[in-house]
Structures are given as C-alpha cells and as structure tokens.
Design a protein that fits this description.
Blueprint: H1 15-31, H2 38-51
Helix pairs in contact: 1-2
C-alpha cells in the first residue's frame, strides 16, 4: 500500500539566513528612519529575532 501522507516540505532558509536577514533589515531601518514604513520594518526585525 503506497504512503498517502504528504511529504514534509524542505526549509527554504537556514538559521544563518535569518541572522543575515535580520542584519540587513536593521541597516535598512536606520536608512529609512523618517519613513512611516520604518515601523513595519522594525516589527519585521523583531519577528526575525524570535527565529534565531
């Protein structure tokens, strides 16, 4: 009887990638500090911190 369970997806990003993304987002937040979108990027930075 064939296995009917779906295969597990492979990870797209490694843990090292999240650290690099967090660093890049931090630099971007500094550059756009006066832009209203900086809050969204700041929130992304903090969410990435929870992953690493």
């Amino acid at each position: 009887m064939p296995n009917t369970e779906p295969q597990r997806s492979r990870a797209v990003f490694s843990n090292e990638d999240f650290a690099l993304l967090k660093e890049a987002v931090a630099e971007h937040v500094k550059r756009i500090a006066d832009d209203p979108r900086s809050t969204k990027f700041s929130n992304l930075y903090h969410r990435l911190g929870r992953l690493t």
